[in-house]
């Protein structure tokens, strides 16, 4: 590690010499002449790349050499400075912007054909009359079926410039001929607020999956809806939320903190400190808030939890968070690619950094989850290791710790039934979704008159569906799977997936949360206070 630290200036110089142009997003105090000045160390790498390009015995893609070199440099800095290749930039930008231009359907490729799972509410396809179960056969005369067609190619044919039109031919079960639709492409939201609904008569619930440009607007609409329904207390679910824009996290904290309260401060390597304070904009300052976190809540999620905890505002519920206290800034490299470079550390209002150590390298850093699992920390709060030298005290006298995540006020162990690795894997890989789609295809009319809330409150998944899902998996995997020990949990996954495909708009979370022990704990806390 001493070797790495000694040569960090060298490798950064090399990165610049590789033709990387860092745009005006940085506030360097050095002049451009000094920053990009020529020296032999930078020229050395340029010459090597030229030698390889012109004289190496085999044809070599020097772009790939540059990519590998950039990644190697960043890996020697910290775990969160990353390189984004140009082929990934559009997807990454869309996710963080919070929308894209398209026709507004969720789909999957079913038997070599695009099958619509659901038309997004109020999107172009929904307005035109596209329904779940429809098969999109052609777009502007190009066929969209066949084993050779990849999802990426399909998406390119359905995307386009805003207000441009695409002519679709659609097969709908029960219709004698293909249906024709002309759809005007529009902005399609990539939602970062998964759900906003009432848990009890007074307790509202909002689930945020990341902090994108659109998140605050979605969040504000969610809490305003819940306040209109009578919410006087709020649950902010940040579990599995990896973070995002720091400024968006600050806006959300501002909804709960009183005027002029410190939200956080950042410090760069030159010791420059920037502070962020709450304003008068908050609409939930006088109400109770519960923040749910787990071992996958990181970065901006921890900013929210840390700021509220340090001001004795609300209750943090769950398990110790991830521990990412580094701030990245995205910088374009001139060829469509970019780097997200760590430029500062952030500190919670009491002055604690929650960044966990990374001195043993990236692999050990990312493997820490397994260490937490092996140590028993995810089941027993007494197993959480704290550093007494990083002890801080809130204005209300509560002891909090820095050095590795936010430790909750109320601990809730991991639920090994609903968070079973096999079931989670099947969900992530789309097995539940595909199975439910095929079940719906048998007779969608069964659910035509079913209201969302009636489905959530009263619908029950029968044992026959569990056995059918078991058979479905065994035909498509090498393993012989049985769900004897997790019968009820499988029912919950199936029901939640059904709700999602039928209704969307947070229906999955409303169903799934019915068996969530952390939600149960919050409801108890709310009722008991």
Describe the structure in your own words.
By secondary structure, this protein is an alpha+beta fold. It has 4 domains: about 80 residues, no CATH class; about 90 residues, PDZ domain (Pdz3 Domain); about 210 residues, 2-enoyl-CoA Hydratase, Chain A, domain 1; about 100 residues, no CATH class. Helices cover about 35% and strands about 20% of the residues. The protein contains 20 helices and 21 strands. The strands form 5 sheets. Strands 3, 4, 5, 6, 7 and 8 form a 6-stranded antiparallel beta sheet that branches. A 6-stranded mixed beta sheet has the order 10-11-12-15-16-21, with helices on both faces. Strands 1, 13, 14, 17 and 18 form a 5-stranded antiparallel beta sheet that branches. Strand 15, helix 11 and strand 16 form a beta-alpha-beta unit. Helix 9 runs parallel beside helix 10 and helix 15 crosses helix 18. The radius of gyration is 26 Å and the shape is globular. The N terminus is likely disordered.
């Amino acid at each position: 590690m001493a070797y790495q630290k000694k040569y960090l200036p060298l490798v950064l110089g090399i990165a610049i010499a590789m033709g990387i142009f860092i745009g005006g997003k940085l506030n360097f105090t050095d002049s451009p002449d000094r920053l990009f000045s020529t020296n032999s160390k930078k020229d050395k790498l340029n010459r090597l790349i030229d030698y390889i390009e012109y004289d190496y015995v085999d044809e070599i893609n020097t772009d790939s050499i540059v990519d590998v070199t950039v990644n190697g440099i960043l890996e020697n800095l910290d775990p969160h400075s990353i390189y984004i290749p140009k082929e990934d930039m559009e997807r990454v930008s869309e996710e963080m912007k919070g929308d894209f231009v398209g026709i507004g359907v969720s789909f999957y490729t079913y038997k070599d054909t695009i099958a619509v799972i659901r038309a997004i509410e109020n999107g172009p396809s929904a307005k035109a009359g596209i329904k779940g179960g429809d098969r999109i056969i052609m777009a502007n005369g190009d066929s969209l079926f066949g084993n050779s067609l990849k999802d990426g190619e399909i998406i390119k044919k359905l995307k386009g410039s805003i207000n441009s039109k695409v002519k679709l031919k659609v097969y709908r079960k029960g219709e004698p001929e293909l249906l024709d639709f002309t759809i005007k492409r529009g902005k399609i939201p990539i939602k970062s607020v998964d759900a906003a609904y009432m848990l009890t008569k007074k307790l509202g619930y909002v689930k945020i999956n990341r902090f994108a440009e659109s998140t605050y607007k979605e969040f504000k609409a969610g809490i305003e809806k819940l306040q209109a329904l009578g919410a006087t207390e709020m649950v902010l679910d940040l579990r599995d939320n990896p973070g995002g824009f720091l400024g968006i996290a600050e806006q959300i904290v501002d909804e709960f903190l009183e005027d002029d309260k410190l939200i956080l401060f950042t410090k760069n390597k030159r010791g420059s400190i920037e502070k962020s304070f709450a304003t008068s904009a908050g609409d939930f300052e006088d109400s109770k808030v519960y923040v749910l976190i787990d071992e996958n809540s990181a970065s901006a999620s921890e900013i929210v939890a840390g700021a509220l905890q340090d001001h004795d505002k609300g209750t943090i519920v769950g398990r110790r968070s991830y521990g990412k206290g580094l701030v990245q800034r995205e910088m374009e490299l001139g060829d469509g690619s970019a780097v997200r470079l760590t430029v500062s550390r952030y500190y919670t209002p009491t002055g604690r950094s929650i960044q966990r150590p990374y001195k043993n390298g990236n692999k050990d850093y990312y493997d820490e989850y397994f260490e937490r699992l092996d140590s028993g920390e995810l089941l027993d709060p007494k197993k959480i290791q704290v550093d007494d030298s990083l002890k801080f005290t809130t204005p209300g006298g509560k002891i909090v710790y820095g050095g590795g995540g936010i430790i909750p006020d109320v601990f809730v162990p991991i639920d090994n039934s609903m968070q079973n690795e096999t079931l989670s894997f099947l969900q992530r890989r789309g097995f539940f979704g595909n199975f439910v789609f095929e079940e719906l295809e048998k007779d969608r009319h069964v659910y035509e008159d079913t209201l969302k809330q009636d489905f959530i409150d009263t619908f029950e998944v029968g044992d026959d569906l569990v056995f059918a899902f078991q058979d479905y998996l065994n035909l498509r995997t090498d393993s012989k799977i049985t769900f004897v020990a997790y019968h009820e949990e499988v029912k919950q996954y199936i029901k939640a997936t059904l709700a999602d495909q039928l209704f969307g708009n947070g229906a999955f979370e409303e169903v799934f949360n019915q068996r969530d022990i952390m939600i149960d704990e919050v409801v108890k806390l709310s009722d008991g206070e």
